[in-house]
């Protein structure tokens, strides 16, 4: 199967890779090429096709490798993979690149709930250091004076505005926004359906009908066409025997005839997929669940029309929480009866002795003003290295704070536990306080 390579994509990648292997006098070449754009548009796959056509070998990393329980591991891994790529260039005598997929997912900051860990700082610092000194990349604890071969770095992502700004400056990273135009998309879809003998006119109509869908939508559509045959195979074989028939069967793996790939059938399945997408968008259950969990009714809505988002709302007077003896049901509210435990009723008694009354008051005041609260822990060994780990999600509601803090204190009695306030607009920490130390 011959897949389509966009001429724009091929030119951009080929120029960047080749330029990094040339010695241009007086020219500072950015080491990193950042390819960003909408999800599902085939950024990584187009890179693979270009590498194959140019005979370039790629050393791969993913966003999932940019975090670790041990501080420094991801940064060391980046250096190790870079040196591995440089060694391949020396040994095999061919171009090699280091490719990091979805960099923004591993090192980006999307909102106030994103944890900015020590590893995130080290990953950013390591990539900047490599971009500034591409021939002198050392591993921690050792030093090799032999210069390395320069290795181009290709990174992909959806939103590079979430990355550390000094990392993506023009001297270190060259940016390429990938959004396939109609000609590119038609060519890519032709490659997907090449084995199915779909006429060019039908492919163009399919692309024009679903013009807002990404490239991977059409790849998933081709896979969906096989569902009916596979469903018939499962029913004919029997649910109890499918595993024996498919995995390690003496009869070999089952063969399926080519399904009907005519345009009306493709449009039918494509419309079904679009309806499924809309159902996900329209359900909105997360908003309902989070309102019940976080107590959004007690917090000001900073997104409402006329709200001043630059200045937090003033704190409301502290009101005592009473336990209801009889259940009362009102619109949008639920009151506990005396048969249920209301955690807010024992808020002061439960937490004031554990974290201190002053910290408790500041915590409640920050939550009332729309700020967020975070909880972290660290064991005795990593306390000296200041390598704290998150105890869970960022806290945005008062009832959630009770459960999260109490749970973390109970689970980490032998560790240090600290609280900190977060300004969600400025994305910065306001204060930190260690509330528990190991005995």
Account of the protein in words:
The protein has 439 residues and is α/β, with parallel strands linked by helices. The protein has 3 domains: 7-177, P-loop containing nucleotide triphosphate hydrolases (Rossmann fold); 186-285, Helicase, Ruva Protein, domain 3; 297-436, Ribulose 1,5 Bisphosphate Carboxylase/Oxygenase (2-Layer Sandwich). It contains 16 helices and 11 strands. It has helices spanning 7-20, 43-54, 73-92, 103-107, 118-132, 182-192, 200-209, 215-224, 227-237, 242-246, 263-283, 285-294, 347-355, 357-368, 380-383, 398-411, and strands at 32-36, 57-62, 96-101, 153-157, 173-177, 329-330, 333-334, 372-378, 389-390, 416-423, 428-436. The strands form 3 sheets. A 5-stranded parallel beta sheet has the order 2-3-4-1-5. A 4-stranded antiparallel beta sheet has the order 9-8-10-11. Helix 13 crosses helix 14 (357-368).
Rg over C-alpha atoms, rounded to the nearest angstrom? 28 Å
* Helix-residue proportion: 40-55%
- Terminal CA distance: 65 Å
Mean pLDDT over the full residue set: 82
Number of structural units classed as domains: 3
Instruction: Kindly estimate the percentage of residues that lie in beta strands according to DSSP.
Output: 5-15%
How many individual β-strands?
11
Classify the oligomer: single chain
Class by helix and strand content?
A: alpha/beta
What string, H for helix and E for strand, traces the elements in order? HEHEHEHHEEHHHHHHHEEHHEHEHEE
- What is the class of the largest domain in the CATH system? Alpha Beta
């Amino acid at each position: 199967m011959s897949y389509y390579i966009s001429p724009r994509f091929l030119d951009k990648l080929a120029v960047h890779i080749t330029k990094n292997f040339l010695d241009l006098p007086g020219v500072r070449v950015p080491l990193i090429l950042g390819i960003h754009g909408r999800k599902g548009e085939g950024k990584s796959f187009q890179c693979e096709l270009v590498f194959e056509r140019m005979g370039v070998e790629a050393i791969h990393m993913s966003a999932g490798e940019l975090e670790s329980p041990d501080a420094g591991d991801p940064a060391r891994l980046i250096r190790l993979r870079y040196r591995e790529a440089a060694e391949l260039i020396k040994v095999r005598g061919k171009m090699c690149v280091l490719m990091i997929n979805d960099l923004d997912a591993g090192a980006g900051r999307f909102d106030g709930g994103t944890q900015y860990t020590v590893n995130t700082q080290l990953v950013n610092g390591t990539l900047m250091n490599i971009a500034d000194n591409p021939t002198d990349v050392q591993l921690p604890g050792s030093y090799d004076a032999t210069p390395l071969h320069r290795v181009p770095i290709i990174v992909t992502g959806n939103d590079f505005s979430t990355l550390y700004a000094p990392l993506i400056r023009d001297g270190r990273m060259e940016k390429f926004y990938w959004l396939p135009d109609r000609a590119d998309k038609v060519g890519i879809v032709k490659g997907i359906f090449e084995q199915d003998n779909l006429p060019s006119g039908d492919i163009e109509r399919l692309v024009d009908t679903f013009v807002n869908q990404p490239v991977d939508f059409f790849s998933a559509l081709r896979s969906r066409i096989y569902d009916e045959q596979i469903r018939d195979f499962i029913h004919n074989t029997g649910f109890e025997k499918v595993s024996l028939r498919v995995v390690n069967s003496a009869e070999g793996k089952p063969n399926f005839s080519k399904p009907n790939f005519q345009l009306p059938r493709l449009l039918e399945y494509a419309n079904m997929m679009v309806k499924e997408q809309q159902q996900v968008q329209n359900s909105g259950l997360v908003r309902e669940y989070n309102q019940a969990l976080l107590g959004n009714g007690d917090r000001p809505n900073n997104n409402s029309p006329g709200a001043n988002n630059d200045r937090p709302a003033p704190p409301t007077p502290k009101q005592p929480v009473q336990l209801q003896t009889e259940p009362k049901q009102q619109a949008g509210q639920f009151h506990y009866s005396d048969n249920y435990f209301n955690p807010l009723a024992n808020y002061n008694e439960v937490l004031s002795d554990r974290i201190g009354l002053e910290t408790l008051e500041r915590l409640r005041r920050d939550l009332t003003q729309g700020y967020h609260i975070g909880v972290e822990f660290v064991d005795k060994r990593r306390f000296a290295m200041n390598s704290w780990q998150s105890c869970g999600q960022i806290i945005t509601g008062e009832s959630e704070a009770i459960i999260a803090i109490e749970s973390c204190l109970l689970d980490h009695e032998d560790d240090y536990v600290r609280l900190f306030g977060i300004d969600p607009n400025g994305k910065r920490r306001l204060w930190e306080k260690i509330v528990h130390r190991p005995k």
